[in-house]
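testing teh design pipeline on a random one, pls ignore if ur not involved
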């Protein structure tokens, strides 16, 4: 089946008892057992819930994976994956990544005795940089692509080869473009992570996360940790993410249409110093993006001329783009990474990674593109 069909049907068959077209919300914490050790597949809703099971099947399907796991947040999903590691292990990660992931790696996981080396993916020979960063105790490679917030593109297939040669686990955070535009498992990744809060949920009304894999051994370990750690979504949140999946394809096409239109407008504006969007031919990794993605997504980052003072004026005059954390909802959002999503990164480290004081990140919604353009033009002028 094509993506659009799987998104509506996989894991979401009509209820056998009632014929209900939508998956019921099973608001129960526990389940009656027929006898000691004999139940109908469910014992306790932290361990398993029918609404969540439907979501997990749907998530696996749209990511071309065999196994899906749902979590209470994207960081809960990330923490569960990192629970595969033990004291003395080492991670190789991209240098441009979500501030919450950086905080988790440096303020939590480092306390487990697990260290991280960050690779600059702006260098000419990126593969050699990753290879050189691998140590005898390296167990996992963690990447985002496109990255947050500078929208760099990492070659998933090449890194998958490096990971296999070194017997490492390759994890790809696929939040920024969703499974509609990119499916890392098809390119050789071992694990895909999502914040379902973003594009998959798509309506800014839930917090959620997901992990998808086709490796049965990894899945068994993660399933154990999911139950042991317990950071699972409620049945109602699971239902809302399922609802979001049904319209994911339609929304992503509109997000991209609007973002590409605005990126072309912004790159020629005299008040814009630099724009980051992989759909523009002048993006350094545009050809790679075209190779591993079927679309470029709805995220744009830009640097304004005039520094932070220009950012303050811009933010004070914007109307349709709402100043808010997060991304991927139907409404357009504006984020100032320095103080918001990447506030956990120390200033010197942030500047070293290219996140400047004049950087603004746009999550382009599905409003009319000309209304969004007018809003940006009025704020810039």
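output:
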């Amino acid at each position: 089946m094509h993506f659009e069909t799987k998104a509506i049907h996989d894991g979401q068959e009509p209820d056998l008892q009632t014929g209900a077209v939508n998956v019921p919300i099973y608001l129960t914490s526990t389940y009656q057992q027929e006898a000691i050790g004999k139940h109908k597949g469910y014992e306790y809703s932290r361990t398993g819930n029918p609404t969540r099971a439907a979501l997990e099947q749907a998530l696996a399907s749209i990511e071309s994976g065999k196994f899906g796991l749902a979590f209470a947040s994207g960081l809960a999903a990330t923490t569960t994956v990192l629970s595969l590691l033990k004291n003395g292990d080492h991670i190789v990660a991209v240098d441009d990544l979500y501030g919450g992931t950086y905080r988790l790696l440096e303020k939590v996981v480092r306390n487990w005795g697990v260290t991280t080396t960050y690779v600059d993916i702006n260098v000419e020979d990126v593969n050699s940089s990753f290879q050189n960063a691998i140590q005898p105790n390296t167990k996992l490679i963690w990447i985002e692509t496109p990255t947050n917030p500078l929208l760099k593109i990492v070659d998933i297939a090449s890194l998958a080869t490096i990971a296999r040669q070194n017997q490492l686990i390759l994890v790809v955070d696929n939040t920024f473009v969703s499974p509609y535009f990119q499916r890392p498992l098809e390119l050789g990744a071992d694990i895909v992570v999502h914040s379902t809060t973003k594009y998959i949920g798509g309506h800014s009304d839930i917090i959620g996360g997901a992990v998808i894999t086709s490796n049965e051994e990894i899945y068994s370990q993660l399933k154990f940790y999911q139950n042991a750690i317990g950071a699972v979504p409620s049945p109602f949140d699971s239902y809302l993410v399922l609802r979001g999946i049904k319209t994911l394809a339609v929304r992503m096409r509109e997000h991209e249409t609007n973002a590409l239109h605005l990126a072309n407008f912004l790159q020629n504006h005299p008040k814009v110093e630099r724009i980051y969007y992989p759909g523009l031919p002048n993006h350094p990794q545009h050809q790679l993006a075209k190779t591993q993605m079927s679309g470029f997504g709805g995220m744009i980052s830009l640097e304004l001329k005039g520094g932070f003072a220009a950012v303050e004026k811009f933010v004070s005059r914007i109307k349709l783009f709402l100043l808010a954390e997060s991304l991927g909802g139907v409404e357009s959002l504006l984020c100032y990474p320095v103080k918001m999503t990447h506030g956990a990164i120390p200033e010197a480290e942030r500047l070293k990674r290219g996140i400047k004081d004049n950087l603004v990140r746009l999550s382009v919604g599905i409003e009319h593109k000309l209304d969004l353009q007018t809003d940006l033009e009025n704020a810039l002028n």
